[in-house]
Amino acid sequence: EVQLVESGGGLVQPGGSLKLSCAASGFTFSGSAMHWVRQASGKGLEWVGRIRSKANSYATAYAASVKGRFTISRDDSKNTAYLQMNSLKTEDTAVYYCTRYYSSGWSFDYWGQGTLVTVSS
Amino acid sequence: DIQLTQSPSFLSASVGDRVTITCRASQGISSYLAWYQQKPGKAPKLLIYAASTLQSGVPSRFSGSGSGTEFTLTISSLQPEDFATYYCQQLNSYRITFGQGTRLEIK
Known about the structure:
A: mainly beta, seven-stranded mixed beta sheet, B: mainly beta, four-stranded antiparallel beta sheet
């Protein structure tokens, strides 16, 4: 059974940093691209960024709203993806989901349960 | 970035109704479009990928069509568990985007 479990969310002050983790199981993590998506309360879904597999040089890409502040990484030995968030703003407050990219179907076929990040003073 | 516009944003319908949600892209995206269903407090669930392919385990009352810039999600006969918010998503460009969502409520 595929599972994605996010952790690391919490309350942080504006300008602060937080690192989220996404622990994966039930599939070949090393061969999969992983994405992060966020959702502010009562709002729609916003793609945050992604990291590809080793075979694709661990290439990353980010939404314009987070580029330069957020960094996605992965540790294939731990089956875990990470989202390092720096210089956080109040508008970064959201539930953050990690997702698996389904390469054969150009979609996100598995999602974690999400972790809440609140940026507030 | 490619913009996706869903219509309507809100839809009120009854059990048994046939409903259609439209997603329009600001530029052509071939068939790189997916549809998701989200219920309150839950993660989104993949329904349709590659514009028209039903994800495994998804009921056949859901169907998708379209290519280029205009796409539709159709639910042939609404069931009580279908009342949720639906999102389209494009994966044609490296910066992925979602539509703003369509909230489907019981009339």
